[in-house]
Amino acid sequence: MLRLFIGLELPGTVLDRLEQLCSGLKEARWVEPHNMHLTLFFIGEIDEGQAEDLHHGLDKIRFDPFDLYLAELNCFAHKHQPSSIWAGVKGDVVALHHLQNKVRGAVEIAGIEAEKRKYKPHVTIARLKKTPSEQALSYMEAHNVLKTEAFTVSRFTLFRSHLTRHGAEYEVLERYGLRK
After folding, report:
1. Which CATH number covers residue 141?
2. Rounded CA separation 178/6 (Å)
3. pTM above 0.90, yes or no
């Protein structure tokens, strides 16, 4: 079984800027910069046959390059308790949603069940378990001036997720969208 997801790799300058944010909040589990990405679609565990079908579908996707940047911090919460802090995605989000819909279509054609949640583009920078809400809000307010440089999206990536005792590690399996 393969644990897979599809996402966008971030340029080094954006990762460097995000790495500057990865301190100052007790109990936070910071995402390592080499693991930061913008998820297009989380697949989960599938067998190699489905992965091959998925690859063929993703390989057919074509799109025009578009520009994005990251700005502002926010959080997801579970039962009113912050569970993660993330950077928001700005720029040509309409083009991003079109790409995500094409990816969703390829996933469904491969016979993989699609996520039911509405797509919310973001880049997770920290996972929280016992961080008090007030501390998380204070951290976000102090760092909400975040605005990275714009970057061009001309490809997307199929990642494999390896679960370790230190958290997930991501491996690039294939990049798509490089050909015209």
Report:
1. 3.90.1140.10
2. 15
3. yes
